[in-house]
Inverse folding.
């Protein structure tokens, strides 16, 4: 009966067949080291802190920036404290439309984005906003980048299932 008790076999991990092994245990200290490749995942908990409203906005289809009531400087990429005067900033809704200030086509990226290359990153300029916003640009022919794209009017679009990441928002051309 007891020989029927065993752990279930699984298909994960490193499955090895026929690894040579000297059963008389001689020369084991001279054995060639085994080298394996395994995925390595770390999950960690972190806080968006005072930038949480930015991500809550993205989840609700609203892109927020910040504004300094002291010197009137406006930030497309939110900053809680004003780089110009050191004042405390307040949240504002960014214009839904802007224009391409500049762009680049990425043929390389971090592990997360590598499978999506080539893709376009653009800096978006907004009326009445002092800084730019770096974002993904869709709807342009990535194989034929053109300087004529600069100045093109674009609008926000949001992924439907928010991931609470800055990539929840991206920009597409305004087609009239
Ligand atoms: Zn200021």
């Amino acid at each position: 009966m007891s020989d029927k008790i065993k752990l279930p076999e699984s298909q994960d991990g490193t499955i090895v067949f026929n690894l040579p092994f000297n059963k008389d245990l001689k020369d084991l200290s001279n054995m060639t080291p085994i080298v394996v490749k395994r995925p390595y995942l770390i999950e960690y908990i972190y806080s968006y802190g005072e930038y949480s409203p930015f991500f809550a906005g993205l989840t609700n289809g609203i892109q927020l920036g910040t504004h300094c009531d002291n010197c009137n400087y406006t930030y497309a990429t939110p900053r809680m404290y004003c780089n110009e005067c050191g004042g405390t900033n307040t949240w504002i809704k960014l214009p839904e439309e802007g224009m391409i200030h500049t762009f680049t086509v990425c043929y390389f990226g971090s592990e997360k984005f590598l499978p999506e290359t080539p893709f376009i990153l653009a800096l978006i300029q907004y009326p009445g906003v002092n800084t730019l916003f770096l974002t993904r640009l869709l709807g342009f022919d990535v194989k034929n980048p053109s300087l004529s794209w600069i100045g093109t009017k674009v609008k926000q679009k949001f992924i439907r299932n928010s991931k609470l990441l800055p990539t929840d928002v991206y920009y597409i051309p305004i087609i009239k």
The chain has one domain: 49-173.
